Amino acid sequence: MRTKLITILFFLSGVCALIYEMIWMKQLSLILGITTYAIGLLLITFLGGLCIGSLIISRIKLNIRIAYPAIEIIVGIYAFFVPLSLKLIWTLSPLWQYPIAILILFIPTFLLGGTFPLITQYVTSRYPNKNKTISILYFVNTLGGVIGVALSTYYLIPKFGFLQTNTLTAGLNIIISILFFLVAKRTISKQARFHLEFNHTALILFLTGFSSLSLEIVWTRLFTHTQFFGLSTYSFANVLILYLLGIAIGSLLLTFINLKLDTLLIIASMSSFVTIPLYFDIQAFSSYIPYIKYFLIAIPTASFGMIFPLLAASYTKKNIAKDVGSAYFLNTLGGILGILITSFLLIQYIGTFYTIAIFSGLLLLLSRRNLFTYGIIIAMLIFAGMYAQERVKNQLFFDEGISITTTVHGDSTGYSIQLNGQNLGGTSSIDNATNTYLVLLPLLYNPQAITSLQVGLGVGTTAGTMAQFKSIQHIDIVELAENVIEGSKLIKDYNYQVHDNKKVNIFVGDGRRYILTTQQHYDIILTEPMHLNLAGSGNLFTLEYFTEIRKHLLPRGVAVQWVPLYDAEPEHVQSILNTFASVFPVVDTWIVNNELILVGGEELDFSSETLKEYLDQYSSIFDVILIESTENFLVHYIMNASETKEFSKHSILNTDNNLYIEYNTPLITGYTPEKNKQKLYESISPKHLEQYGLNNSFVEAEWTRIFGQKLSCLVKE
To answer: Is the pLDDT of residue 530 over 90?
Structure first.
């Protein structure tokens, strides 16, 4: 009975560990950015702590009844102070932020790394069947991880927020500690030298860890490229859940099925390779078939779930804690190397399909080495090349960059750019209208503007249009993905060859982090992120982000925020407006097609005379959106500052703590701009336009057309 309770506590420990990973990784990414380098560093630090902790703690002579609860309670108490530590990072210079973030992650993960070998030592001292014990404990802890990811992503964080979820989890750690101390009996782990036994088993432990986490990276990139999974926060969590679930199932199956290592390696190899053609099947179907097909990645992961405990048991001799800690160290170290090589080299230079083929071949080589095996590996590479060619067919540009896969589609009549299969933007008349308003509005409010910062390059038409205005002398553009910059060069006929404009400085980086760390101030800061429901996009709609923008505006500076009305419910749109208006004293709201444009500043005012001057001087730009008079332009001004506040005042603030937009908009099904337009239409009044000489009947007639159709009648088709 005691051992069963200990096993349950180890399950709960797994729950806590993955909740911490989901919370801390996300919160640190808000500070350090969401570039592949930043996320990769955090992930490697997390795994590195587990890796080194398992190696060191397993070699220390400890009373497990005291040591294990000490680890849990220290981690729990430490977790209470992590939010305070994150606030400290905000105040540090950029030079110190990374090392302090690494330290914050390393300390608790180092301690957690010791839990698996200590628990294994404790249980095997009572149940000598080490093979079964290692499998069950690996299953229990990994299943806890599955629950931790699912529970935090789908319930705790959306319901309570990051801080509250962190506090609840820390409390659970302390409860685990107390219960373990009360239930467990005195058990001593043996002291051992810091020596690793390198043999054939050690090599396979390392290489299977190397292959396993490498394939997880590839599958995450590949499957979030499909319409079914998409790029939301839930998409990445779902892939992780399926990966961990497969491992948990495999480790449990090992207690019932006796399979040889060579057989498991062959199964892992072939089932991993099959995910390449599986990708095309998923793309082709829009029914519930994908739900079944995605679970097929559980076959290779289940194989990995059987391989590790089998190898760990084989590697373990007399000193259980030491040898299990060493096995865990070798496997995790291989995983860390796999993440590094796959994320930063293989995907970028040879692509996802060839990467899968290489690791499938490696697993096959570990099982047996003969001419037949080499023939299969060559066939895998040939088929991977064929599928890779099929994938790039009919695309003007295709690049699996270090952070995201970018494609360009179209012909001389128009172009569009996609990121991981999700539309970023294009050169249609609808897109051009929005981009033109994004430029004209800040210049209308601040005609003396000289400098501009744009977060997100997109197709480049916004920045290209901005550069056409003589008053603008310098434009900084921060783009997350380097291949977006390269892809947008193909659209030079539409973006005014923005890449060659001497006014424009384009660099790769995380826009939010740039604003957080730069000493520069701007007349205009324009944020044009991806859609609301995409992971990371929500970082650019929070109270803290808007606050940083305000700090970096020059006197009379204006902030411009793009807000889509699709894939969002009215309460989500109102949340963004309320959050923006909570930071900027004055906020005006404009509508173009199915999108809002918010303009914020310390004080806002514009002259219809300035607008007339722009109409005359830049008529070619206004022609794009069929604006021939000030009246045609001003009818898109739907709410002034007081009306914006009134419309949104009772809605939830979107903060770094709740990421309300990022966690709620992906749950919306269907295309919802009409619902949002209806809500706006019921709330607005044309009174604020009277000062510009607009007749109420004219405004109401125009608004009826703007809000009553899917697209504004003012846009060319």
So the answer is: no
